[in-house]
Amino acid sequence: MLKITKFGGSSVADARQFSKVKSIIEADPDRKYVVVSAPGRRFHSDSKLTDLLYLLDAHRQYHVDASNVFAMIKERFLEIKTELDLKQPIEKELDLFYTNLNTMTQAEIVSRGEYFCAKLMAEYLGFPFVDAKDVIRFRLDKTIDWEATKSKLIAKTAQHSNFVMPGFYGATSHDQVQVFSRGGGDISGAILARCIEADVYENWTDVSGFLMADPTVVKNPEPITHISYSELRELSYMGASVLHEEAIFPVKEKNIPIHILNTNRPQDAGTIIQERTAKTSPYAITGIAGKAGFMSIYIYKKHMSNEVGYMRKVLSILEDYNVSIEHIPSGIDSFTIVIQEKDIEDRLYEMLARIKKELRPDEIRTQNKIALISTVGKNMSSRPGVSGRLFGALGMNNINIVMIAQGSDEINITVGVNENDFKKTVRVIYDTFVTEEEKR
């Protein structure tokens, strides 16, 4: 079996975390190729290395003395080197990096957290170092050049039976460093797993996988041991975030499982993400996620169903204001548009005035302070009565539903409630489908 292991910022934050990584790698000979992020926070008030590098770049851009920021960056790496008794002459390369700061792009600067971390990790593990700049290739439109990347990675695996590679960045065809969005080290690991056709992509972080609900809302929620990519996408969209969303797509087509694991508790089972698998949740649902900060715009027009293009015209006005639509529950002569409040800010009344003037609805009204909660699970479509149980439970607990939406693939039911009922709604749904089922 061939495993790709990716370690996030918390997993490489200091020398102590480095030693945990080494124990994990040595515990399984199938863990041949390692991807690392930049060192993360060591404690709550600490800074992530990547944040310091962005700050360093800001100092450079505004011609402000950056020596204090660089000193903090250098100290972090030298502390790891000294405590692990490494021989890598990293201080010379760090000093050269600072000397050349004004000739570098922002992408080059912020990518050095992963670069120097991987250099130290490679020596500590006794593995070769492979620079992501030499193997991860971007096209000019910033998408991955899969053919070139696969060719280069296969060549490296033929050359080395194992290696350490920095995440978060690659290079264009002109050898200019290009970075992913923040958290993009997860994507780097997924690209490697896909290109060399790994059996498993292990993503090591500081949590033991996904939980069925937010532990700050539900006390001791059950862990999710198996979840499909589509279920994860629904939960992640509503705020359940452990893995960078874009890390899913490189491995999804190949059905390569992603295994979320905890560096600090390697004995925990974690969560396996895989689309085509016989293993599903033992409950009717897989998980619950939600977030607040939404509002709705209700529009009613007599005989709307006979007027071609009415809804499209309304949506085109919202598009002009660059407003993203979350849900559109509809009736015969009415529909409701659910949007994030932050997307409209001070433009709401201008936008409503334009809808009234151009489309003359018979009624238009808004409601703010809405929370959306998604109940997600592949099992729901095969178990009759799930919707009835959910709505019945909310009604019995005096929770008023202001909006209902169900996906066409029947793996999620989203309800909108008043923000004051947000946490209560999550708890009621969890108790209905998990706590009560455990008692049976």
Give an overview in words.
With 440 residues, the chain is of the alpha/beta class. It has two domains: 3-206, Acetylglutamate kinase-like (Carbamate kinase), CATH 3.40.1160; 287-439, 2-Layer Sandwich (VC0802-like), CATH 3.30.2130.10. It contains 14 helices and 17 strands. The strands form four sheets. It has a seven-stranded mixed beta sheet with strand order 4-2-1-7-11-12-10, with helices on both faces. Helix 2 (49-61) packs antiparallel against helix 3 (67-83) and helix 11 runs antiparallel to helix 12 (348-359). The longest helix has 18 residues, at 422-439. The chain is globular and about 75 Å long. 39% of the residues are buried. The mean pLDDT is 92.
What's the topology here?
Blueprint: E1 3-7, H1 15-26, E2 31-36, H2 49-61, H3 67-83, H4 90-99, H5 106-110, H6 112-125, E3 137-138, H7 146-159, E4 163-166, E5 169-172, E6 177-179, H8 185-195, E7 200-205, E8 210-211, E9 223-224, E10 226-227, H9 229-237, H10 248-252, E11 258-262, E12 271-273, E13 287-300, H11 310-320, E14 334-340, H12 348-359, E15 363-376, H13 386-396, E16 401-406, E17 412-418, H14 422-439
Number of strands: 17
The CATH homologous superfamily of the largest domain is called: Acetylglutamate kinase-like
Give the second-level CATH assignment, the architecture of the largest domain.
3-Layer(aba) Sandwich
What's the arrangement of strands in the largest beta sheet?
A: 4-2-1-7-11-12-10
- Outline: globular
Largest sheet: 7 strands, mixed
Mean pLDDT: 92
What top-tier CATH class of the largest domain fits best?
Alpha Beta
Structural category is alpha/beta
Q: Any idea what the radius of gyration is?
A: 25 Å
Percent strand equals 15-25%
